[in-house]
Amino acid sequence: MTVQGWILIAVFVGILLALTKPMGVWLHALFEGRRTPLHLVLGPVERGFYKLSGIDPAAEQGWRKYAVHMLIFNTVLLLFTYAILRLQGVLPFNPLGFPGLSQHLAFNTAISFTTNTNWQSYSGESTMSNLSQMMALTIHNFMSAATGIALAFALFRGFARRSSATIGNFWADMTRVTLYLLLPISVVYAVFLIANGVPQTLAGSVDVTTLEGVKQTLALGPVASQEAIKMIGTNGGGFFNANSAHPFENPNALTNLVQMLSIFVVGFGLTWCFGKAVGNTRQGWAILAAMLILFLAGTTIAYSQEAIGNPVLHHLGIAGGNMEGKEVRFGIAASSLFAVVTTDASCGAVNAMHDSFTALGGLIPLFNIQLGEVVVGGVGAGIYGFLLFAILAVFVAGLMVGRTPEYVGKKIEGREVKLAVLAIAILPLVILGFAAISSVVAPGLAGPLNKGPHGFSEILYAFTSAVGNNGSAFAGLTANTPYYDAMLGIAMWLGRFFVIVPMLAVAGSLAAKKYVPETAGSFPTTGGLWVGLLVGTILILGGLTFLPSLALGPIADHLAMIGGHLS
Amino acid sequence: MGNEITSALRPALVLTILFALLLGLAYPLALTGIGQVVFPAQANGSLLRDGNKLVGSALIGQTFASDRYFQGRPSAAGKGYDGLASSGSNLGPSAQALVDRIKPDIAKARSQGATGALPADLVTASASGLDPDISPASAQLQVARVARARGLPEAQLRALVIAATQYPLLGFLGEERVNVLALNRQLDRIGANTVK
Which of A11, A317, A321 lies at the smallest CB-CB distance from B106? Predict the structure, then answer.
């Protein structure tokens, strides 16, 4: 590890902390449906959209209606994308003449982008037409992110409202977040990326003749517009196969820093927005503190392991850290940091190949996703996931002191705890279940590139990434097969909507409750004790479940690596 | 429930179309317009020209097999630096295949006079397979070979490498690196000015 590397990490955290409140204030305005300066320009668009689609933005919805409307909208989007992907061969903006996708790949990809996972069983530059990239995929980058933030708003209202039957209007939340947050940031961001060398053209490719006289064809396309929303919406689906490691997606260290910041910035802001919504911003800072502890712990381990490097290569006479699967312009520090950020959030963009990380360096991204991606997390999904853990944490505290637990002025009772457990249990159930099946059936075993424990890690990572809606991969796994496309598609759907529906039920249940004022006997949810309890709850509930599987994968791999047992 | 579903259909269908037009068409096309007008060089791939001939992109590495050129990192993109097939090797840290791939590269470096521990980037595959850069140490290791092949003094090439080295922005953003294509174009310019 170097001083330069730690300065990068410190600057990264410092900038985010400075942006937390401004972003939170902006989000809170959208949460309350207040007017922003952008309404001057985009207000007519918003009103026009409501008018044409017959939406009354002021019509409040109960949690069931909110959930059904969200599900229907996402299903329509899913079918829309599936159709474009299947038909891309006969649609315009297809300069390289790619055919339509196979049924299983289109199924997998449509679910992947609908669920904000952006798992990619395909290689972008050799599969997707420009129309597919723009119309089928970019639109989901906006809509799935906006859906996530809308859902977080719904849960915030559950905590903030008193004796209320409703939790907001899905259409209004989703439209406002898209128009007043995601779209304007993406426009500015994309211009910044173009200025730094990210292509933005409708041409499909360009031929050059190298200095040695060989023809090299470079894939091009409307990259910057997709890249911007891919990061700010924590989607992570790259234009190219190599994602943010590709020099055309992430040309230099400055774009790399901005990409990492943009993965986290909305999530940081949402913690502040939550505090403001429930009337005490310290509640938000306490959540952020717990997230930062887990983030810094993960960063320290991953960075140190990658900096130490691979003893197998040291024996061959190679110096220093692990550079297999990393780019020179980013080096060890920025690659390790990116890996932690992208898996703490449910982004899944990568600027280095996680599959080639050292065994323990690669364990951290895997474990981060298994914790439920609640360390900042995906936009919206991170904070609503985190609040489910908070409900369990106050429940545990309540058991210890023998009082009915309360959180931000709401009594937490049996119904909320059961629903929270239901939402959280889907992760280990599907990850471990599907990974176990795939480790014994033939089409599952055909997937891994690497042999031995690392091969198992590839399978485990795939299902972890799918259920966690992350989208990063131990990319050696050959995933574009009918078996994996189908299994991972189902896993992504379960991991997204089987968390969301119980979570919205919690929101509805909380909204209906009366406000309970804080008393001397209330467990304080702002101080250091609470932060420690949160971290402990997440590590024990989220993490312990997965330890046996980690022992079979990355830990066995680590022992093989330091012992020189190659496979 | 039935009522909730039917009441959602119109907004779901209409908003899908409206957002598809706004986000899937207007947004990327407007950005394409801005990019092509304001930053045409970058928006089209930062292409490098020699007269009328396109010789590469400033951002993308290319294969150099000849001893007369500095060489980039091993590439897992297609058959090497394939601009249509970006990819890392995805080999795990304890993979036999990784060691099997690296050993010949080490032997090659040693045969060209490299001593001591080798810089890690020289023999490891990049994440994209299109990495345009190598570390200054990896470039210096190749100076003797290139100087011999070109009949140029080593000192001149060492100076060339130092001049081509890019440093971290603000002292902490990024790593010290040498763009291999840019370095080799410099090299060709020297070659053109010296009598063989």
Answer: A317
